[in-house]
Design brief:
This protein has 416 residues and is α+β, with helices and mostly antiparallel strands. The protein is built from 16 helices and 16 strands. The protein starts with 15 loop residues before the first helix and ends in a 7-residue tail after the last helix. Bound molecules: adenosine-5'-triphosphate (ATP) and magnesium ion (MG).
């Protein structure tokens, strides 16, 4: 840091108007989670580095380039969580929850990735997500997708989003496909980007996910996984597609969709939008049957998704997020009135109504500020009102003004 004090690059300050939308998105997701039988889990923001390094794979973009790794004062290698699934899987294993299967978890919180910051892409960002553990049936995939779709509908953005879906097949199909891919890319190795040359050795499937223009060209003619899917994998995928069709959720099969992480199998999906420029993916997920075993736990199937709250909030219509409710302004007209105003405000709030007490300035200025804030009513109190045990109620919409007793005020109806 030098000179003027600043935010760290890639972080953001969420101001009150931002948080109105963030809260709405999170609250909507939480409500959907409860409806679908998911319980909320909160795992630590940092874990032992190996929790992420082992699960996400050393060659994944996230681990090789994006994690915030540090050594703490006790010499432990720790990592700020770049995503939610690994932490949930770690909790499942370390808390010995396998007797409780099936388990469904919902989470929401900050994630950290050292990325090139731009609109919709931050170094500290927010995700909410769902993980369904213990079901190997494709119907679990369908329910997870349905919950995601319900959420996008609830926050008013489903019309802007497209569900893209693909299958990676089971382990056998992927092994056959991997061989075919290696043969193809080996034959064109000179045209591959440096990153993809490394991927060719370690995880050739990832080349399909590459953002390099040269790689993208090669990918167009690369063998397709479809041709290598065994019967089990084909049946599984058909059931997923059949299920989402039955629910009337529109989708597009995209055979290029592979997802960046090692642990996915069978279903992978993304909800994308064209409304956010380059950062088009708002929600992404898939099945990860191998993950928990890979982390040293019992073999446990899983399927889930995560959504970027920053991106969801960008799309959410603001008027949906803002709660329509009455605002009562309390205006002390003189010193005596001001002193009583705190008690009046307190009484209004005790009824569950929003009351804002304008504490300083002249009477006229206070009324103006109340109006600017969008107050629907003003309760005006001066020495007279205090002496008579009354308040003057002004309705901003009609301009009407009348004096009522404090007893009447207790049940006075404030309407929008
Ligand atoms: P991308 O291709 O945009 O880098 P990703 O595949 O790395 O996404 P996931 O790991 O699947 O993303 O995370 C799920 C969701 O979290 C993304 O679809 C996106 O909405 C959000 N997300 C991921 N990284 C960021 C980031 N750096 N800033 C804001 N949101 C993010
Ligand atoms: Mg990324």
């Amino acid at each position: 840091m030098s000179g003027k004090i600043q935010r760290v690059r890639g972080t953001r300050d969420l101001l009150p108007e931002d948080n109105v939308v963030f809260r709405f998105v999170e609250q909507s997701a939480y409500e959907k989670a409860i409806l679908y039988g998911f319980g909320e889990i909160e795992t630590p923001i940092f874990e032992f580095s190996e929790v992420f390094h082992r699960t996400l794979g050393e060659t994944s973009d996230v681990v090789s380039k994006e994690t915030y790794d540090f050594t703490d004062r006790g010499g432990e290698s720790l990592t700020l969580r770049p995503e939610g699934t690994a932490g949930v899987a770690r909790a499942f294993i370390s808390e010995g929850m396998s007797q409780l299967l099936p388990l469904k978890f919902y989470y929401s919180g900050q994630m950290f990735r050292y990325e090139r910051p731009q609109k919709g892409r931050y170094r500290q960002f927010y995700q909410l997500g769902a993980e369904c553990l213990g079901y190997d049936t494709p119907l679990a995939d369908v329910e997870c997708i349905a919950m995601a779709w319900d959420l996008l509908q609830k926050i008013g953005i489903s019309a802007d989003c497209t569900l893209e879906i693909n299958t990676l097949g089971d382990a056998e199909s992927r092994a056959a496909y991997r061989d075919a891919l290696v043969a193809y890319f080996k034959a064109h190795e000179d045209q591959l980007s440096a990153d993809s040359k490394t991927r060719l050795e370690k995880n050739p499937l990832r080349i399909l996910d590459s953002k390099d223009e040269g790689d993208k060209k090669l990918n167009e003619n690369a063998p397709k996984l479809e041709q290598y899917l065994n019967e089990t994998s084909q049946t599984f995928f058909k059931k997923v597609l059949g299920g989402i069709e039955k629910l009337g959720i529109p989708f597009k099969v995209n055979s290029h969709l592979v997802r960046g992480l090692d642990y996915y199998c069978h279903t992978v999906f993304e909800f994308t939008t064209t409304k956010l420029g380059a950062q088009g993916t708002v929600l992404a997920g898939g099945r990860y049957d191998g993950l928990i075993e890979m982390m040293g736990g019992p073999k446990t199937p899983g399927v889930g998704w995560a959504a970027g709250i920053d991106r969801l909030a960008d799309l959410t219509p603001k008027e949906l997020a803002v709660r329509q409710e009455v605002l009562v302004a309390i205006i002390g007209a003189d010193e005596q009135g001001e002193e009583e105003s705190v008690k009046v405000a307190h009484e209004i709030r005790a009824r569950g109504l929003k009351a804002e007490n304008f504490l300083s300035g002249k009477m006229g200025k206070k009324m103006q500020k109340a109006n600017n804030k969008g107050a629907h009513y003003a309760l005006i109190l001066g020495g007279n009102e205090v002496a008579n045990n009354t308040v003057t109620v002004k309705n901003f919409a009609t301009g009407e003004q009348k004096e009522i007793s404090r007893a009447e005020l207790k049940t006075y109806s404030f309407t929008l």
